[in-house]
From TrEMBL:
Family of the protein in this entry: Belongs to the nitroreductase family.
CDD domains: TdsD-like (cd02138)
Residue numbers spanned by region Disordered: 162-188
Stated name of the protein: Nitroreductase
Length: 188
């Protein structure tokens, strides 16, 4: 979907860089491989996310080979697996629980990753629909790490490649108005 098409769905109330409006979470992925240098730039951007006292609690476990993606698909719930199986890269974002704001800081790293991916011409889609206990076991994740999300990364595919019931959802979402997000002085 190009920038002009996205404007049908997204209008900012204030002037912001177009990357914020153009980044969205498609479900249709092309099976085209992501070049190593492009993928590493995406994770490099995440590496530079700010964190409390520079603890950098996030870690990414990635799957690019067919074998590794099959491992990930073993714990991704059916509703997500049916569209993310074509994604050439899957990643699990985990965070070190010793950092009291690990989830917040890891979310910032995810945001940096998503924006760099958009800049690289890639799409990303984060998922909470997976079995955390099974993922911990399959990926050998230590107990001191919390599992946050699974991320599909790749090039956008055609809407028609999705199961028919998902095709109607394959468009950018809107956002609530800014005046429903900001409260001055107290929560209203």
């Amino acid at each position: 979907m190009n920038e002009l098409q996205i404007k049908q769905f997204r209008q900012s109330e204030h002037d912001v860089d177009p990357i914020y409006l153009n980044r969205w979470s498609p479900r249709s992925f092309s099976e085209k491989e992501v070049p190593e240098d492009v993928l590493m730039r995406v994770f490099e951007a995440a590496r530079w996310a700010p964190s409390a006292i520079n603890l950098q609690p996030w870690r990414f476990i990635i799957a690019r080979s067919e074998e590794d993606r099959a491992k990930f698909n073993s714990f991704i719930l059916d509703g997500n697996r049916r569209w993310c199986e074509k994604a050439p890269v899957l990643a699990v974002l985990i965070s070190d629980k010793e950092d009291p704001v690990h989830a917040f800081d890891s979310g910032t790293a995810w945001g940096f990753l998503a924006l760099q991916a958009a800049k690289e011409g890639l799409v990303t889609h984060a998922m909470g629909g997976y079995e955390k206990d099974k993922a911990r076991e399959v990926l050998n994740i230590p107990d001191n790490f919390d599992l946050q999300i699974v991320i599909a990364i790749g090039y956008q595919g055609e809407k028609e490649a999705l199961p028919e019931d998902l095709q109607g959802r394959e468009q950018p979402s809107t956002r609530r108005p800014l005046n429903e997000t900001i409260f001055e002085g107290t929560f209203k």
